[in-house]
Automatic annotation (TrEMBL), chains A, B:
Pfam families the UniProt entry points to: Dabb
Lineage: Bacteria, Pseudomonadati, Bacteroidota, Cytophagia, Cytophagales
SMART domains the record matches: Dabb
Superkingdom as given in the UniProt entry: Bacteria
Domain Stress-response A/B barrel: from-to ranges: 2-97
SUPFAM superfamilies hit by this protein: Dimeric alpha+beta barrel
Protein name, per record: Dabb family protein
Length: 99, 99
C-alpha cells in the first residue's frame, strides 16, 4: 500500500469561508478512482506534548501502489483542486509511506 | 472516523536490528480489535520540498470513533509495545484527525 498524508495550514484560519472552500476542494478529490480509501479530517481534541494539533485539515489517502498515487497526482481533478485552492493555504506538509 | 497518525524517528536508524525490533513491535499492535484499519509503512521515494521523508516508520490507524481510539491507548498490547519499544525511538510525532 501507499499512504499519502497531507496537512494543511490555512492562511486565514479564522475565516469560516476559507475552511468551507478548502473542505469543498478536498471533497472534490474523492471522486478520483485511483484512490482506494480517503479520510478528510480536522484536529481531534486529544492533547499531549507529542500531538500536533496546529493544522487545519488532514487528508489521508490510501493507494494500492505508487503507480496509483502517481496517477492521482496527474489527475485533472487533483490539478484543478491545486489551482483553485492553493491560495487558501499558508503551508502544506506531506508524508508518503509505503508498505 | 478517527485517524491516528504516528511518525517514529529511531535513535539508531543505522542499526537494522532496531528497525526490525520496532517493526515487530508495530506489528504486535495489529491484533488490537478496537482498530478498524492499520497501515505500517516506511518513507516512499517521493521527493519534493513539501514532503518529509526524514522519519523511520509511520503508523496510521483508523478507528470508528474517539472511544475506540481511547480503548486502543489503554489496551495491554499497546502498553506492552510502549514499554518494550520506547527506548528505540528518539522522537515521536502524532497527529489525530476526526471526520
Amino acid at each position: 500500500m501507499f499512504v499519502h498524508i497531507v496537512f494543511f495550514w490555512l492562511k486565514n484560519p479564522e475565516e469560516q469561508a476559507n475552511h468551507d472552500a478548502l473542505k469543498a476542494g478536498l471533497d472534490s478529490l474523492t471522486g478520483i478512482d485511483a484512490i482506494t480509501t480517503v479520510y478528510i479530517g480536522t484536529p481531534a481534541d486529544t492533547r499531549r506534548p507529542v500531538i500536533d494539533h496546529s493544522y487545519d485539515f488532514n487528508l489521508t489517502m490510501v493507494f494500492a501502489d505508487k503507480a496509483a498515487h502517481d496517477a492521482y497526482q496527474e489527475h485533472p481533478l487533483h490539478l484543478a483542486f491545486v489551482e483553485k485552492c492553493a491560495h487558501l493555504w499558508e503551508r502544506v506538509h506531506i508524508y508518503d509511506a509505503v508498505s
